[in-house]
Design a protein that fits this description.
By secondary structure, the chain is of the alpha+beta class. The protein is built from 14 helices and nine strands. Helices cover 48% and strands 10% of the residues.
Length: 355
């Protein structure tokens, strides 16, 4: 990579490092192909220098060499192979619904199911530090995560596939939204913009209602994945058992992916940040029948993972106390043991999958 002053950037240059502001918010993500609008934005923000990928980094030789050392390469290769098909399914959702339904069923059965069952799937998803925030990419990741949760909840293979399909189609209604809504931060939406955004749940249900061979639970997940157990969600303010279990599973997968994936305008957080939110809301907005098995199994997935604490100390996740809501016990490089449940001022700032 090479450092380049903003004045010397050319359209088509590829950003080698994400630009992060003082609040740890990603402004422009690594891997972005810079356009005129990006360059104008950099000038406006008074950013003097950025890092650009050099010719070797963009060459096939570099990509091939990098692949040799990428432990999750097989997963990423299989994931990327599905992305193209997913994009085609989400393009013009209202057209050829019978073909799109059949394609989605095939994707879930032949591609998403193996990905959800692959060893280290949670680490692989987190390790994909830069992923485009397209509807189809997010939906694919939610589909995989929903399948993992369904497996942990010991559903039979048929219901697992339906739940993965629910995750895949949960944001189908967003394809009906204008770009100006999709490009805005959700937490900044107000008035008519907020109502238009919230309409994607009903739009998704309508789209899926006209597709053949789509189970009712899959359709309801599109409409209900923003409903909350205490009735504070949308579009209908459903409570408790009024919400379909598929919707609750997809809602948790959706939240986890949004929290732990790098997106422009949002800080990529660690799984432990997600855990803290889940445990705080497990008996209010979230469904405990989904959250408890999720938390218990996720802890097994993170044993041995490397972490950096906010005091600068590096270590590994050594164990978890018996309480499902508990934070991990860290074994540091200095052979000290830190129980984060007893040290409220010490937090995990960075998480790295197992070596």
């Amino acid at each position: 990579m090479r450092a380049v002053s903003v004045e010397d950037i050319k359209e088509g240059d590829v950003l080698a490092r994400s630009l992060v502001n003082d609040d740890h918010i990603v402004m422009i993500s690594e891997g972005t192909v810079l356009k005129k609008a990006h360059i104008t934005r950099l000038n406006y923000l008074n950013i003097p220098v950025v890092y650009i990928k050099d010719e070797y980094e963009l060459s096939k030789n570099f990509q091939a060499a990098s692949a040799v050392f990428n432990k999750s390469n097989a997963f990423v290769k299989d994931y990327n192979a599905v992305v193209t098909v997913a994009k085609e399914i989400f393009t013009d959702m209202e057209q050829e619904k019978d073909k799109k339904s059949a394609a989605a069923h095939a994707v879930v059965s032949n591609a998403v199911t193996p990905l959800a069952k692959s060893s280290g799937v949670i680490d692989h998803l987190f390790d994909m530090s830069h992923v485009d925030d397209d509807i189809y990419q997010h939906s694919l990741r939610v589909s995989i995560l929903s399948g993992v949760i369904a497996k942990w909840m010991q559903y039979d293979p048929i219901r697992q596939r339906d739940i993965m399909l629910a995750g895949f189609f949960h944001d189908a209604g967003k394809t009906a939204l204008p770009r100006r809504i999709l490009d805005k931060r959700i937490d900044k939406l107000q008035g008519d913009d907020l109502l238009e955004y919230q309409s994607h749940t009903e739009e998704g249900y309508k789209i899926l209602s006209n597709m053949p061979d789509i189970a009712e639970g899959v359709k309801r997940a599109a409409r209900e994945h923003h409903e909350r157990m205490d009735g504070t969600g949308f579009p209908s303010g459903l409570k408790g058992s009024e919400i379909h279990i598929y919707s609750s599973i997809v809602a948790l997968a959706d939240f986890y992916d949004n929290t732990t994936t790098e997106r422009e305008g949002y800080k990529k957080q660690t799984p432990f940040d997600a855990f803290s939110y889940i445990t705080e809301h497990i008996y209010t907005t979230l469904d405990p029948t989904v959250c408890v098995p999720f938390l218990n199994h996720m802890k097994d997935a993170f044993l041995g993972s490397r972490v950096t604490l906010n005091n600068g100390i590096n270590g590994k996740v050594a164990a978890f106390p018996g309480d499902f809501a508990a934070l991990p016990i860290i074994s540091t490089e200095n052979h000290e043991i830190i129980n984060l449940n007893k040290e409220p001022d010490i937090k995990i700032m960075e998480y790295n999958p197992k070596e």
